[in-house]
Amino acid sequence: MVRNTLTGPRCLLFLLLLLLGIHVTGCPAPVRVPPGTVPVTEVPPSEGKRPDAPEDPRTLAAMNLTEQGRMLLERGRVDDAISLFERAANISPANGYNCYYLAEAWILKGDPYQAREWNRLAEIYLRENIAWMEKVLAQKKRIKKGGNGLSP
User: Fold this and answer.
1) Could you tell me if residue 14 is left (phi over 0), alpha (psi between -120 and 50 degrees) or otherwise beta?
2) How far is it, in rounded angstroms, from Cα 7 to Cα 85?
3) Structure letter (DSSP) for residue 31
4) C-alpha to C-alpha distance for 71 and 118, rounded to whole angstroms
5) What's the confidence (pLDDT) of residue 122?
6) Which of 21, 34, 47, 52 is deepest in the core (most CB within 10 A)?
7) CATH architecture of the domain with residue range 57-145
8) What pLDDT digit, counting tens, does each position of 88-141 carry?
9) How far is CA 83 from the centre of its chain?
10) Following CA atoms 97, 98, 100, 106 in sequence, which dihedral angle do they give, to the nearest 10 degrees?
């Protein structure tokens, strides 16, 4: 008859010693660095990077989708452009440029309600950009008139 040696109190003692050994050998003591011993240095700005380029990868992805949508809009592929603009809006809802182009797309589709709503959002998000605000306000006038077409 074979006797199992890892049962009962012996098994419990073995497991406790094993866990204690793992704990003692596997956890190094934390290193404490006294304040002021590590020099504080500023990270230099990356060279060759546009100063107005977005830092957040999501914002960058949304801007790329907006640009692709704009190109589709110029080619008359309004439905495809709207699809890309909506994807960009889901990624970065505060992208005012995307809102502007979505309003343009809805103008071309003949939906003044959608165009007015996206224009309103573009006005909110681009209010500090004077050049774009001129475009947004011109777009707003075209929507009120019921005009069609992309602005220059």
Assistant:
1) alpha
2) 66
3) P
4) 19
5) 95
6) 21
7) Alpha Horseshoe (1.25)
8) 999 999 999 999 999 999 999 999 999 999 999 999 999 999 999 999 999 999
9) 18
10) 170
Structure-derived torsion over alpha carbons of residues 19, 20, 22, 27, reported in degrees to the nearest 10 = 130
Token output for 146? 């019921």
d(CA 104, CA 100): 6
DSSP state of 34: -
pLDDT confidence band for 22 (50 / 70 / 90): low
> Residue 43: its pLDDT value, please?
34
Q: Are 151 and 132 in contact (CB under 8 A)?
A: no
Please answer whether residues 50 and 63 qualify as being in contact, where contact means their C-beta atoms are separated by less than 8 angstroms: no
Structure tokens at 38: 């590590």
